Amino acid sequence: METEELIFFDESLKDIPIMLGSEEIASLIGKKHHNILQDCDELNECYKEFGLPKIRETTYKDSQNCEQREYYLTYMQCSNLMFRYNRKLRSKVNHHWKELKKEVEAVE
User: Fold this and answer.
1) Which residues contact 81 (CB under 8 A, 6 or more apart)?
2) CB atoms inside a 10 Å sphere around CB 47
3) Exposure of 1 by Cβ count < 10 A (0-12 exposed, 13-18 middle, 19+ buried)?
4) Domains of the chain: total
5) For residue 73, what are the β-bridge partners?
6) Which of 2, 19, 77, 101 is the most exposed place for a label (fewest CB within 10 A)?
7) pLDDT in tens, 58-72
8) How far apart are CA 62 and CA 101, in angstroms?
């Protein structure tokens, strides 16, 4: 996988009509989902302070039919979240966003 530095806000990715789920982000970067949820909670506190739209929170039923939290992040929210992590993890997620963009463009 080629390593690319995550740009704070890549204009070419901002309008992709896709959001990444916190479960998918956790899987991509090898972190526990509950840690990603905590980081999203903290980021939402910052967004609240600055009057920005919060990360969308939802729930789903897991394999044991228990309700679990999950966040869905826009590209910019994901970029903000990823600045908490190291370059390698940021690069992985950045590459994933670029692949999603290619998929969207192929459908259009």
Assistant:
1) 25, 36, 39, 40, 43, 73
2) 16
3) exposed
4) 1
5) 20
6) 2
7) 998 989 999 999 999
8) 28
Burial class (CB in 10 A: 0-12, 13-18, 19+), 80: buried
Q: Is residue 2 part of a domain?
A: no
> Has this prediction a pTM greater than 0.85?
no
Domain that holds residue 99: 11-107
- 68, 59 in Cβ contact below 8 A? yes
**Between 33 and 4, the higher pLDDT residue:** 33
Is residue 88 helix, strand or coil? Answer: helix
Sign for the CA dihedral angle at 29, 32, 37, 38 comes to: negative
- Sequential DSSP letters for 27-50: HHHT--HHHHHHHHHHHHHHHHHH
Question: 53-78 b/e with 16+ CB inside 10 Å = b?
Answer: eebeeeeeeeeeeeeeebbbbbbebb
How buried is 25 (Cβ within 10 angstroms: 0-12 exposed, 13-18 middle, 19+ buried)?
A: buried
